[in-house]
Structures are given as C-alpha cells and as structure tokens.
TrEMBL record:
One of its GO terms (molecular function) is hydrolase activity, acting on carbon-nitrogen (but not peptide) bonds. Residues 50-534 form the Amidohydrolase domain. InterPro entries: Amidohydro_3, Metal-dep_hydrolase_composite, Metal_Hydrolase, YtcJ-like. It holds the Pfam family Amidohydro_3. This is Amidohydrolase 3 domain-containing protein. CDD domains: YtcJ_like (cd01300). It comes from the Bacteria. Gene3D superfamilies: 3.10.310.70, Metal-dependent hydrolases, Urease, subunit C, domain 1.
Amino acid sequence: MDRKTIFINGKVITMSKEKPSAEAFLVEGDVFNKVGTNEEIMALADENTEIVDLNNQTILPGMNDSHMHLISYALSTKKVDLRGCKSLEDLREAILSYLDSEEQFFGEWIVGHGWNDENFNDRRYPTREFLDEICSDRPIFLSRACYHIAAVNSKALELANINSETKDPDGGKIDRDASGEATGILRENALLLPYNMIPMPQDVEQIKQLIKSGINDALMVGLTSIQTDDFKHVGSYKKVLKAYKELYEEGDLDLRINLQMLLTIEELKEFSDLNIHTGMGNSYLKYGPLKVLADGSLGGKTAALEEPYEGDEENRGILIYDNNKLEALLRLAADNGLQLAVHAIGDGAMNQLLEIFDKFFGNGEKNHRSRLIHCQITNKKIIDKMKELNVIADIQPSFLMTDMKMVPARIGDKRARDSYNWKTMLEKGVVAAGGSDCPIESFNPFLGIYAAVTRMDMESKPEGGWYPEECLSVDEAIEIYTVGSSYATFEENLKGKIKTGYLADFIVIDRDIKEILPIELKDIKIKATYVGGEKKYMK
C-alpha cells in the first residue's frame, strides 16, 4: 500500500494556473494526489495517514536546474579555488598554499579553477613564465572562470607535446608569442590537450562518491531535478553511465537526473547502435539531449560573434565546427531520436544553429524542443526565429551578476542592450529554462531568481538593475526554474507544479517569496527538500 501523507497549514505556491495557491496537499506514493484547502485535504485522512503541519511556511515546487555539470562541481571541490583572487599575486599565494596542503587529488598535477582576469587590476593572464616561477617541476593547469580558457606552465605544455610546431586543433587556439612559442594560454579545444592527461577518477565507486557528494549539496539549495552534462569530466562516458545506473539500482539517487550527453560523432554512432534516445529511463534517471559546443565564452573572447569584439577588429570568436560538420552531427542525433542542446553564447553561433534548425524543423515540426544553451548575445531577429522554430532558451541568470561588468567592454553598449534580454524572450513567447552552468556559477537557484528579477550583482548594484526593462517578475523567475526547465525535458506534465498527478517534489523555504523585497531573494534558505514525497534534506 502506498504511504499517505497530508501536509497542512502551508503557503503553497503551486505554479499551476488553474490553482495558483493552496493551503494543503495529499501525497500518496510519490505523487500529489490532491491539492486544496486544509478542510478539503483533511477530509481525505484515515488512520494510516501521516499529518505534517507546515506551520504557515512557504512551499514551492522543487527547483530544476536546466544545465549544469554535477561531476565537474564535485571535482572542483578538490581543485585550487581561484575564484576569490583579485590579482596574480593572490593566485600565486593560492597555489603555494595548495602545495603545502595534504590534498593532492590529481597526482602530480596542480589543478585550479575560477581565475578571472576581469578581477585583476592589470587584467593580465597567468602565462607559463609566471606559473613556472611558482612551480616548474610539476604540471599546472588552471581553468579560467568560464572553463573555455586554461593557463598552463611549461611542464604541462611539455607533457601535452605542445611546442612551436604544434598546430591549433580544430575548434581551438594555442596562444603564441612573437617567436611562435606557446604562451601557456589555451583556448577551447586546445585546452583538452593537457586536460586529457590529468589523472581523473577511473574507478566507478570513486565516480559514484563524487556524484553523491554533489547531490547532497544540490538538495541543500532546493534542487530536486538536475540536467547535467558529465560525460567528459572523468574521461570515460561509459563509466559515468555505469556510476549513475548503479546509484539508481542501489537506491542512492536522491534527486532526479537528466543526462545531457556530450559525445563525439564516433561515440554518437555507438549510441545510435544501442537505440538510445531522449526520454529513455525512469523518473529518477533519464537520457536527455545530445550536448554540443558551438562556440566559446564571452569572457574569453571566444564566443562567436557576427561583428568583431570591441577594440579587437580581427577577432570574432571561435566557431567550434564548420557548417557541414555541425549539421552532420546534429542530423545524426535528430534522426536517432535525440533532442539537441547546443552551447551558443554569441550571435554568430546562434545564427549558425538557427539556420540548421530551420533546415531540420522549418516544415512546422514544433515538438523537437531544441535548445540554445546560454544564448546571451541576441537580437530581435534571433529571438523571433527561436519563437518560430520553438527553440528553447536555456539561460543562466546568475551569469549576469558577473558578466554585466565586462559585457560593454566586449561588445559595446548597442549590442549589450540586446543581450541577456530574457523579458523580451518571454514576451515574444520563447520558452525559457533556468539553470546555472555550475561550477561556473553556484547552482543555488535563488541566486538565479534574484539575478533574473533584479538584474543586479550580489552588492545590489547597479541601483535599479542593468537594463531594468528586462527584469522578470518573481513568478516568471520561479517559472523558468520549474515549469520551463520541465518543459525542456518533455516533462511539463510530470514535474514543476504542485498539482494532482505530478511528482511530489517540493521545498520549504524560510520566507514568503511573494512578500519579501527583491534584494532579499538571494538570501532565501531551504528548510526542507522533498523528492517523491520523501524528505531528502532538512536544515
């Protein structure tokens, strides 16, 4: 017999247009059986029903992160954390401190993440000469905040066989000095040359522990579903799949996983032979879309633009694929039942993709639900085409809190005005799904909601918000992290709402999100997280 639990005396925000608010609900098994008033729900109680008093606390549907990297997040906790560095000297001290510690997770490799030249007074990158001064006998690999640029020392270049004769890989760039020697700055696919040499966990049990530690942290911020791109972070996508499957079989997946599958065309052919398609799985573990990278990052000046970067007339960023290769990859995926989810930050990359999507779906097919992940540097024409083709905007509002400081310097005020324009997207009828791209940003969804509503940084600046006409309402911001992200996985009739028949995934928060000031949204804390009606986290 399914367990029955009644939750009463709550401020329940359902995200259902038919019944936007409620006081109580009945959970039977792992779904909401009934939602309504205290009186209506208590009438359904019997001697086997557990009663939970919510004590007038605010309840929301569980949050659903539409794009992140769970294993990379767990790995990042083992790396040198460079996010707080305000100068190259800070970076030096962080590495030296790591060398003095007992934590050496990556063998002889010194691996760090999160440095951002925009936070340095002189805006300089950490070159190989600088890193050699810190340590020359061990390889150093430091990811920029965007994860699209890495700084390495001479030892890492040597181990990766990068020298003056090495050609740039497809979709990548090795920065060089006037003599043709590598500077230690590697962009896009070039950074994979040393990265793929870093010893990563190869034991499935180790990978499972990384996943579990990430899940525990995700539950603490109110996530009940995540859509995660993990296939390339430990070298073997097959071991990642095995780890997730074993966790499910062992009953240790405490939130719902949708796998975004970053695959080469050869690996994609293997998937095709196995007849794996988007949506296969169960309510806790599903195959999601094919994940593809079309360009780089705005911060690293590798996002592909239609017009040059400000003050850098020779640079329009990097398209990872030429049109023919990208179309062939996406066609193979679409023909084999895989949804398409493509990283595209610049308008150049988005136009490349929309042209391909138009070939595939311009005949009126609407339920493909292809996704543009990030879609930051947009314009009216791009948004109109997204609406026409029913392409989902897979956005990360938290990006805005750091990006707003450097966007004008990268693309100028005119293009900046048409960028990160989420309100315009919604008004045009584009479906938006909310995510974090963690570990690039925190996967706390309330930081994303805060950024979407206020368009301010963590210090509540600029006053009134950055292009405030693009601010979302609180309801709109919640919706992209619940209803919108569920639509992106074809699960809008299964999750994202507190509604009869939906999965009983919900959270208890520490304040009334409808009554607080917008600047308080970032301070919301989770008191309890329920997945399938079971309490998975309680503060």
